[in-house]
Specification:
Strand content of chain B: 35-45%
Oligomer: heterodimer
Helix content of chain B: 10-25%
Order of helices and strands of chain A: HHEHHHHHHHH
Radius of gyration of chain A: 17 Å
Largest interface: A-B, 66 and 43 residues
Number of helices of chain A: 10
Largest sheet of chain B: 4 strands, antiparallel
Largest sheet of chain A: none
Shape of chain A: globular
Strand order of the largest sheet of chain B: 7-8-9-10
CATH superfamily of chain A: PhyR, sigma-like (SL) domain
Structural class of chain B: mainly beta
Chain lengths: 194, 354
């Protein structure tokens, strides 16, 4: 009878439940596996879409904190990527391009609608004071949108500092400073919840 | 700082996994890209045509000024939109053309006012009540209302399609006792507000698809229709007047959600919008609104630039519903509906050409 390693099946769900060593000082580079290889039987855009759409959607959902807006944003950005695939497909990081286009589209929509940035407190992601996923969402929600975008690019899209800078149209220094502030705020928020 | 502490990375990844996941399809993206390409081409063609027409028109103006004014003839055929009456239950109405009072509203007949001022009545199918009825140009009526008159049935809503000379079709559209209301309808689709957003309901088969989520419009998820003073759908455009900013109706494309434009009415003394109706091509919108001076007016605006094309006082009191319908692309007609206290009410149709 084969043995199923549930930790490998659901690594992010199960990870917090493990008996973790003291990791507060431990750091890891963001070198998580990028994605599954593209299926050679489908065209370039379709393969890209299949591999990346869910990841970009989740990154946008965390950044925007509105699932419907994230869904429309990723659809719009993917449609634009498809229309310009001869250019977008040659980029080093098409997923970052899609994330940026989706983020800009959603931010523009929301600003026109509310004439302000997305609100800080949302009912979409209810607050729970712990380090559970909901607690992390609350901590992320407390970050300003630019910091949240950098954090999600670095962690959820597995982009390096340089790639994040290119994707968001920022300098590497700005990415580093926003990441630093974002991580400090997240650390404080998660520690206070613990 | 360029490296990310593992515990924070784990927490953020777990937060990402909290989302329900992407539920879209590649075909939607392709369709969206096609529409985007079509829209851009149409815009390019229209721009080129405008420039060309400007150049040619400019030349003609110089040569012969009288030919520069576009000649326009109103349509002589059936009106583009039908004028159905919003009448409180059991109200007697009379028109100038016909002096015989007719009792309308509630579970009784639905009234329709023709361009010639004739009152046409349509019976309500079954024992129910029509909350809202929309008349299609092909003669069909699309209505939504509770199944019967008992208060307990208010959550059991039916969508009725009444075809002249044919059997009416009725379909239960209530889901899990959620509120539902009719916004607009065309030959194939009824647009319904449900808690999650605006849905396109296929009249033939009853299939529904989400057009735009309530969240996207900053409307409450419980009952978005209750947060609106008025709404209309025509073509691929949605126009809403939210209670929170009633005098700044919001216009957006819904196929797919694209572009937001406000049509402010505050400069003409608007206090609250009570009704909206877009012209068939969606180029203009007729807005009924209450003024701070205590009157009900109807204004016509261009949806392209929000320019005010007409503004007319209709009634010298507030709390009056005005039903509106476009006769053609430039002419809107309407009638002030009777209030709850009006036992016998004379319908006075008005027309606003623009």
């Amino acid at each position: 009878m084969p043995v199923i390693d549930v930790y490998n099946l659901f690594p992010y769900v199960w990870e917090p439940l493990r008996v973790l060593p003291r990791v507060s000082d431990m750091v890891v580079p963001t070198t998580a596996p990028r994605s599954a290889p593209a299926d050679p039987g489908v065209d370039g855009f379709e393969a890209f879409y299949r591999v990346h759409v869910d990841r970009v959607y989740r990154a946008l959902a965390v950044t925007l904190r509105r699932d419907d807006l994230a869904h429309e944003a990723v659809d719009e950005a993917m449609a634009r990527a498809y229309a310009k695939w001869d250019v977008v497909g040659t980029l080093d990081n098409p997923a970052g391009w899609v994330f940026r286009v989706g983020l800009n589209w959603a931010t523009s929509w929301w600003r026109k609608l509310r004439r302000e940035s997305p609100p800080v407190t949302e009912a979409d992601h209810p607050a729970v004071a712990d380090t559970s996923p909901a607690g992390a969402l609350l901590a992320l929600a407390a970050l300003p949108l630019p910091q949240r975008a950098v954090v999600t690019c670095r962690i959820l899209l597995d982009l390096s500092t340089a790639e994040t800078a290119e994707a968001l149209g920022l300098s590497e220094g700005t990415v580093k400073s926003r990441l630093s502030r974002g991580l400090t705020a997240l650390r404080a928020q998660l520690s206070s919840e613990e | 700082m360029d490296e990310i502490p593992r515990d924070i990375e784990v927490a953020v990844r777990a937060a990402g996994e909290q989302s329900k996941g992407y539920a879209g399809e590649l075909s939607t993206v392709y369709r969206r890209a096609r529409r985007r390409r079509t829209r851009r081409r149409a815009t390019a063609v229209a721009t080129a045509f405008t420039v060309l027409a400007g150049l040619v028109g400019g030349g003609l103006i110089v040569r012969q000024r009288t030919d520069a004014t576009p000649h326009y003839e109103p349509a002589s055929t059936a009106p583009a939109q039908r004028l159905l009456l919003s009448v409180p239950a059991r109200t007697f109405v009379v028109t100038r053309a016909d002096s015989t009072p007719v009792e309308l509203g509630g579970d009784l007949d639905v009234g329709e006012l023709s361009v010639a001022d004739d009152l046409v009545v349509h019976p309500v199918v079954g024992a129910g009540v029509y909350d809202k009825t929309i008349g299609l140009p092909d003669g069909r009526l699309v209505s939504v209302g509770p199944r019967d008159r008992r208060p307990a049935s208010a959550l059991d809503m039916l969508l009725t399609v009444d075809t002249p000379g044919g059997r009416p079709q009725q379909r239960a559209i209530t889901r899990e006792e959620e509120p539902v209301s009719l916004v607009a309808a065309d030959s194939t689709t009824a647009f319904l507000w449900r808690p999650y957003g605006l849905y396109a309901h296929d009249l033939a088969g009853g299939l529904e698809r989400l057009v735009i989520a309530s969240d996207m419009l900053d409307l409450p998820n419980g009952d978005p229709a209750a947060a609106l003073d008025a709404a209309d759908v025509a073509g691929d455009r949605l126009l809403i007047a939210a209670k929170s900013r009633s005098c700044r109706p919001l216009l957006t494309s819904i196929a797919p959600p694209q572009g937001i434009r406000f049509l402010p009415l505050t400069s003409i003394g608007c206090k609250r919008v009570t009704g909206l109706r877009m012209s068939p091509s969606t180029g203009r919108v007729a807005v009924s609104y209450e003024t701070s001076a205590g009157t009900v007016n109807v204004a016509v605006l261009s949806t392209e630039d929000g320019m005010l094309l007409a503004d007319r006082q209709i009634v010298r009191k507030t709390g009056v519903t005005v039903d509106l319908a476009w006769t053609d692309e430039r002419t809107v007609r309407g009638v002030a509906a009777p209030g709850p206290g009006d036992d016998l009410y004379e319908l006075k149709q008005f027309t606003i050409p623009t």
